[in-house]
Amino acid sequence: MFQTISLEEAATGSLGVAAVTHHDGDSALLDAYSNAVVSAAERVSPSVAKIEVTQSGGTRNGETRERHGGGSGFVFTPDGLVMTNSHVVHNASRIDLSLPDGRRFPAHLVGEDPATDLAVIRIDAPHLTSVQLGDSQKLRVGQLAIAIGNPYGFQYTVTAGVVSALGRSLRSYSGRMIDDVIQTDASLNPGNSGGPLVSSDGQVIGVNTATIMGAQGLCFAIGINTAKFVASRLLTQGRIRRAYIGVEAQTTPLHRRIVRFYDLPKETGVVVAAVQEGSPAKRAGLREGDVIIAFGGQPIAGVDDLHRLLTDAHVEVKNTISVLRHTDKLELSIVPQEGKE
Q1: Which of 25, 143, 168, 187 could lock onto 181 through a cystine, CB 3.0 to 4.6 A?
Q2: Which residues of 90-117 are buried (b: 16+ CB within 10 A; e: fewer)?
Q3: Alpha-carbon span 273 to 281, nearest angstrom
Q4: How far apart are CA 155 and CA 49, in angstroms?
Q5: How many other CB atoms sit within 10 Å of the CB of residue 190?
Q6: DSSP state, 29?
Q7: How far apart are CA 230 and CA 147, in angstroms?
Q8: Which of 96, 74, 91 is CA-nearest to residue 83?
Q9: Catalytic residues
Q10: CA dist 128 → 23, 49, 76, 172 (Å)
Q11: What is the pTM of this model?
């Protein structure tokens, strides 16, 4: 027999208790989310700087005109190395950096790489707080992502969301495709370009970039693994001389049966989205849809791995590139060329 209850009984009886419990659970979840964002922001924010740039804008009526711009950056070594976007500091005649504690320093450019929209600058300053760098290869769609910037020099800004997509490709202002870009729904505020994208545990997982017009409401970031590689080469050589094969590509998981059948050391590879006409890849016989799993005998787990292997040591040197085409494993010969930026 069914029992009829009134609305008053539902509000004050057992149903009301259940509703309160559900509400309390939501509050606990929101508190945990807020605490994660607050904790990560407080941990990283002392390292996030405002970068002001002066550029010579030519002459008019005999007077030199100057243009001013800027963005954000973050200290990633205690001795004053700062990561930012290449488009923030490109062609700068003067660079100034402001920290959240009120200190202001002149900075000089160590090197930049327009192909990945990354740059390293240096300041000479004591008692710096540096960030902890994470591993962008371990990112998963849906995990918390926090974009931090310092557009004003004295107060940082924070937006939070989730990693909404991995393996995106963007075209940099140099014209080259930036592969393996992280997309989040943490909106990118004006002036936050070059700042860090941070995980819930306060590790930097990407460098925010704003090279896409009309990208408000979304944040695109260069994976921190790519940034680590670029920074190391800029510090040792001042620039990056790359081997070029002529593909647009992104990281992709491999089917478990394929991994087991060929006894592959990695469970991911690089899928070819497009092959440029007249490129080394085209001459080697690569096709759209091929999955690159090794280059020069070295396993390839993602675009970051391919970037690291395509160094100046492989320019005009014959190499073997291993690909999966449907279910077949092929070994192709390829001769990379030097990339032209």
Answers
A1: 168
A2: bebeebbbbbbeeeebebebebbbbbbb
A3: 12
A4: 9
A5: 11
A6: H
A7: 21
A8: 74
A9: 87, 117, 193
A10: 43, 11, 10, 31
A11: 0.67
